[in-house]
Amino acid sequence: MIRVDVNDVSIDLGGFVISGPFSCPGNPASCVAAGLGYAIDANTVAGTSVANGSVRGTARGISIGDHCAVHDVRVVETTNQGIFAGTGCSLSRIVAARNGSDGIQVGQGSITDSAAHDNEGAGFRFGSNGTITGSSARRNGTSGISGNAGTSVSDCVASDNLGSGVSLNAGSVVTSSASYSNTGTGITLGAGGVITDSSSYNNGGAGISAAVSTSVSNSSVSFNSDRGIVLGAGSQVIGNSIRGNTGLGLQFGDGSGYRENVLTGNNGGLEAQVAASVPATDTIFNLGSNVCGTDTICP
Question: What is the pTM of this model?
Fold first, then answer.
């Protein structure tokens, strides 16, 4: 184990491996927790950087404090979290695979060009105000990408996870990303979220599920095992393709509007493709140029 007790230390692993005796078989992993020690423990200090090497089979992976940097590192088959990082951290070109909890957890910061596969928990998990770009989350035990308020996801793919593909809280953004073949919902957002230029395909729950005042535009939502897009009050849905979902293509709350959407083959092929969440009281606004089934007139 490497322990760091002072600020601003750089660790270059030089291509070497910090190894332990443990393994985590399965896809996703099934690990037996074994001890509390980290391969690299810099949790109580700031400004640490770790680069150019691997961690495999230790009790825990890398724990690193605020203002940190981790790049070109593999963390595989630790029996707990792969990487736990504080706030203001930057992580790039990371592989976190078959770890016994989340692959990578970051308090606040950014992740780029990384992969989190087959971890027992989430692939990537953020506190708040996190950014993840150009990364892949596959076959993890819960969500692929999970984040609290203000998380941004762009150019990412989440597939075959046992929870939602992407699950974010209020004020979050999903752009140019794909979520498919997950057991849960494809993309879940809290209030005030935005989804653009994205795809949600063949998920076990709804394609997209979001709270109040959410915007969904220029996305494809198809062949999910529940409804296509489910939104709260005051939302807008613009320019989407919504096809082949088991339930309604589009269902949203009071005061919401939609335009330039094509909804076909949803709801078991019935003509009803769109509905208010509470039909007796909620008002929704067709703003024009929508197609519902074989009828160009939507409610």
Answer: 0.95
